[in-house]
Write a structure and sequence with these properties.
mainly alpha; two-stranded antiparallel sheet; 192 residues; 2 domains
Length: 192
């Protein structure tokens, strides 16, 4: 196959995907938007951040947000990968064109990790990692599956445990980093 034929194949595939996304958005507008499970997801997208804002240790805000953004990025990447590989899929998305469950990746995972890092800081990170992984994998995932938001295809809750542990442990490690160069902004000097 030459480059032109490959490009045509890829373009045809993209056109099919685009058509299916349009169907997904239509279904979402007609049946999902403003449904009880959509409102539930909307609430889960906002409420944990408000709670975190009130309970956070103010002097650690920047450091903890740094960790939260890391967790968001990893959760989003892994969720997209799992969805695209056919391991699971989501119904009742808050945002229809995302193949992930926005409240999970952008709120529940990062806020939970940020709170765990700040609460009981003397508890060994492995204990917190195991706690986080078990609650995420055997309480949160089954709950959203029970609500019919999350559909497992080629995935088991057990598979999530080591991944969740590693995410927490790496986030904890990031939270202890302190080698940031201070940015010095020089005052603008008048040109002579």
């Amino acid at each position: 196959m030459d480059k032109l034929e490959i490009a045509e194949l890829i373009d045809a595939n993209v056109n099919q995907i685009h058509s299916l996304i349009q169907v997904k958005v239509k279904i979402w507008k007609e049946y999902v938007l403003f449904s009880d499970l959509w409102w539930f997801g909307f609430f889960l997208s906002i409420a944990p951040w408000i709670i975190w804002f009130w309970i956070r240790k103010k002097q650690s805000t920047d450091r903890i947000l740094y960790v939260g953004f890391f967790v968001m990025i990893i959760a989003l990447m892994l969720d997209i990968l799992g969805d695209q590989m056919g391991f699971w899929h989501y119904r009742y998305n808050v945002i229809p064109v995302l193949p992930t469950y926005f409240p999970w990746d952008m709120t529940l995972m990062p806020v939970t990790v940020m709170v765990l890092i700040q609460v009981k800081p003397k508890v060994h990170p492995f204990i917190k990692a195991i706690f986080f992984a078990l609650v995420s994998s055997y309480v949160a995932e089954p709950f959203i599956h029970w609500l019919k938001i999350y559909e497992l295809l080629k995935w088991r809750y057990l598979y999530s445990v080591p991944i969740q542990c590693m995410i927490y442990l790496f986030a904890h490690w990031l939270s202890t980093r302190n080698k940031f160069e201070k940015i010095m902004i020089e005052k603008e000097r008048p040109h002579l």
